[in-house]
User: Fold this.
Amino acid sequence: MTAPIADPPSPETAPGERELLRLEEVDAFYGRIQALRGVSLSVNEAEIVTLIGANGAGKTTTLKTISGLVRARNGKVFFGGEETTRVEAHKLVTRGIGHAPEGRRIFSRLTVQENLQMGGYTRSRPEIKEDTARVFELFPRLAERRHQRGGSLSGGEQQMLAIGRALMCRPKLLLLDEPSLGLSPILVQQIFSIIQEINRLGVTILLVEQNALQALKVAHRGYVLQTGTIILADSAAALAANEQVRQAYLGEI
Assistant:
C-alpha cells in the first residue's frame, strides 16, 4: 500500500456485547526490530474478527503476542477481563486461548489421533476422548485418517488437523493464522465454511488471512495493519466496500 488510510474510526461491535480480548498500545520487537507499534484492538465474545495487511505488516506477531509466544515490550493484553501480558503461553492455553499457527506446525511423525491428543494435553482422558469425537464430527476427513501420520496428509488435511488440534483445549478464543495458505479454491471454501461453523458453536475467532476477500466475507469486523500499526478499523462490510482497501488488498484496480 503506497499511502496510509485515514485515522481508524471506532469499529462497530457485533455480535456479542461482552469483550473477550483487548490489546492496549502494544509494542513488540524481534531483537531491535520493532514489529508492532501501539497496536490497540478488541474482540467481543462470539465474534469473528479479521486482521488483514501485506506480508510483514505484523499480523502473525499480533497473534503470537496474544498467545504468549512473543512478549509485548510496552502496552497491555487483556483476556477475559484479566491482564495476561506476562502470562506464559502454556498457561494461556488453560485459560482458553487456542492457536493454529501459520504453516500448520503439526507433528508429522505422529498420527492424526496422536496430534489431537497432544492438543488436549491440559485435559483429562475422558475429556480428550469427548473432544476428539467432536473434532472428528467437524472434520470427517480426519476421522477417516485417524491412524495416518500427519506428514502424509494433504495440505488441506494438515490444515484441518492444525485447527482440530487447537480446538482440543476447548478454547474460548481461537487464533487462526493463514488457514487457507497454499490450498486449492475448493478447499479454501471448505475451510472457511468450517470456520463459520466453529464460530456458530460458540467459539470466538481472531483470523489472520492473506485472502482478504474471503476473510471479510466471514468476519463481523476487521482491522487493517500496515508496518506494525493499525491504520483502519471497521465492520467487515465497510472494509470490503472501502476503495483503498479494495485496491490494496482485494486485487481491484
Notes: Residues 19-249 form a domain with the Rossmann fold fold (CATH 3.40.50.300). The first helix runs from residue 59 to 66. The chain has one domain: 19-249. The longest strand covers residues 19-30.
